[in-house]
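Notes on consecutive records. When two proteins share a document, each keeps its own sequence and its own token line. Never mix them. Below: protein one.
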Amino acid sequence: MPKLRINGISVEVEPGTTVLEAIRFLGLPIPTLCHDDGLRDIGACRLCVVEVSMAANGRTRLLSACTLPAQDGMDVRTNSNTVQRARKLLLELYVATCPQSKTIQDLASEYGVRRVRYDTHNEHCIQCGLCVRICEQQMMAGAIGFSGRGHDRRVSRPFDITSEKCRQCGACLYVCPVCELRCQASTATTALCSGCLNFAPVCFQSYDDAMCFLEPCHACELTGPIRSEIPIKKLKKTLSS
């Protein structure tokens, strides 16, 4: 069975297990927009990107965890500085594409996105393919699919006609990460909501470039802004007072 290390933790998994499954087996947080249990992963959103190095060659690469099979000798880091920068950039792009999505806004707040440097488009799809896959793989209908290529790629019905196989079950709406609107909906005046910033409990222990992964932290009673943005000296002064 494959043996690998994830954030310094040694783990042995069953053959065929993906790195995403191994990470979640350990209870470590990792964001996704295109993954759903029971559906085949296609690595569309790239938010589950991790930093991977192999003992054989020592090269380090950023790869999507959901489509990456766990292998012997892997060293995986889920929260390195490189990974954090990549996720923030991706979330910034997703907010610019679909600023009305509550799911995307929540993830942006959770992972520390504080600005959007790109023009907003108010699209209604991020091409994650969840709706297409659940219709085909779970509902066994295949009533919708992708059409077009490149910039013109979109989810549609065959010939834009509702298929007889469509049972109007609503599964496509259920899994869609864009369909649930943010609180302000059409009245929003900014691209970034920031209404649900992650005021997580603060932890003084740091393991390399990753903090502890308890959510919430049961060892702390002090709450404050995101951990990486608080000077340790300021926190110690707050605790002593």
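Protein two starts on the next line and is unrelated to protein one.
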Amino acid sequence: MKTTKNYPLIEGWISVIINTLLFVLKYWAGIVTGSIALIADAWHTLTDSFSSIIVIVSAKISNKPADHKRPFGYGRTDLISSIIIGVLLAFIGIEFISKSINQLKGGEKVIFGTIAWVVTIISIIVKELLAQYAFWAGRKTDSQILKADGWHHRTDSLSSVIVLIGIIFGKYFWWIDGVLGIIVAIMIFYAAYEILQSSILRLMGETPDNETIEKIEKIVLNIDSNLGPHHYHIHKYGGHIELTFHVFMPMNWSLINAHEITVKIEDTIKEQLNIEATIHMEPDCIDA
């Protein structure tokens, strides 16, 4: 039976095979037409294969069980891999800009033909389908690297749309191919920024979203309305989530009573939210 743990591996292998075939097709069309934008788009597609290999390797490592060296497991491998993909995208953008500027300086006009039309339209459709699958699998697994790979597919699809526009208007403007190459590079830079920002913030730690906090507070107050939960911190390691927070408790409670309530809260959060909680107990006379 297929489980969500298999989604990164499935998405990765599908992406590697399809992107390699698309690279060969695009690169051939770029050579035939002499289009810098098409050749750059081909290399962008090939880097999708590289990033998907990273997805596959990351998935295998992330699924390793926790051990004495990694008590929280290997789930953050996907965040590290996402950063690698983001940096890779940034370097690709720099390369595209350089080639596009050189083409504009040379003043060379590109003649597009039927080959360019067919290859570009195929690329747009296939890459958007890959992006949709990666985003869907990313939502199912809450995998940052799958979402990053989805954006990589999406930027490739959008860059192919831009190349298609260049094909349509290329016969009227000699400079269109170089300008479109720069536009594609800017889109890639934006995708790299989004991926790096999201991954780095999660590595640094984050506050739980409001919906999660509301669920936690409901659990706590249902167990005992005298309690005061506050000061939340969440740490995500792939599918394994650690939560720490403080709870105000009545001063007249014994340590045994406070401990029993704390264990009950932690067990309920684990059962209902699949989150490992650690609670710091405070007498209600202490400020947060």
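For the record: The chain has two domains: 4-204, 210-283.
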